[in-house]
Design a protein that fits this description.
The chain is of the alpha+beta class. It has helices at about 5-25, 35-80, 105-110, and strands at about 80-85, 85-90, 95-100, 115-120, 120-125, 135. The protein is built from 3 helices and 6 strands, in the order H-H-E-E-E-H-E-E-E. Helix 1 packs antiparallel against helix 2 (about 35-80). The two termini are about 55 Å apart.
Length: about 150
């Protein structure tokens, strides 16, 4: 029966496999055929369970790695962002420039998503992630004013 993909679950299933291996070793050659088959089936089951637990553990580790990468990127950008109007902008020499990013997505999930102009209305910008709408006048594109970007 699979566990939660923790190190303890992996160790528990490997310890069970080790116990079965010890039973086989301790019995020597005096085991009858049915008892040997039963112990080998238990050993095979324990090894399969260990493999499943390791796969679950690997998935958990990969998810945590992705979360760490996302949080690291958010931390790097945090010092380089500045709110102006309803959007967040990257900064250069302390001044915001470029395309606006969704303030809701940044403040709630630390995701930098550019706002897009609505197709039939240049007065509205929309976030592709959360679908919030912003007035274009409060989220303008800011030129870098002769700065090298």
């Amino acid at each position: 029966m699979p566990g939660q993909g923790t190190v303890e679950d992996v160790l528990r299933s490997l310890n069970f496999a080790q116990d079965v291996g010890k039973q086989i070793r301790d019995a020597g050659y005096v085991l009858d055929k049915t008892e040997l088959k039963r112990l080998l089936a238990e050993l095979t089951s324990a090894v399969a369970s260990s493999k499943m637990e390791l796969a679950l553990l690997q998935g958990v580790c990969e998810a945590r790695d992705e979360e760490l990468i996302r949080l690291h990127e958010a931390l790097v950008y945090k010092g380089n962002l500045r709110r102006r109007g309803d959007g967040y902008y990257k900064t250069l020499d302390g001044r915001p420039y470029g395309q606006p990013h969704c303030s809701y997505c940044w403040e709630s999930k630390q995701q930098l998503l550019h706002l897009h102009s609505r197709i039939l209305s240049k007065d509205i910008r929309i976030c592709p992630g959360c679908k919030n709408e912003y007035q274009a006048i409060r989220t303008p594109y800011l030129e870098a004013d002769g700065m090298t970007v």
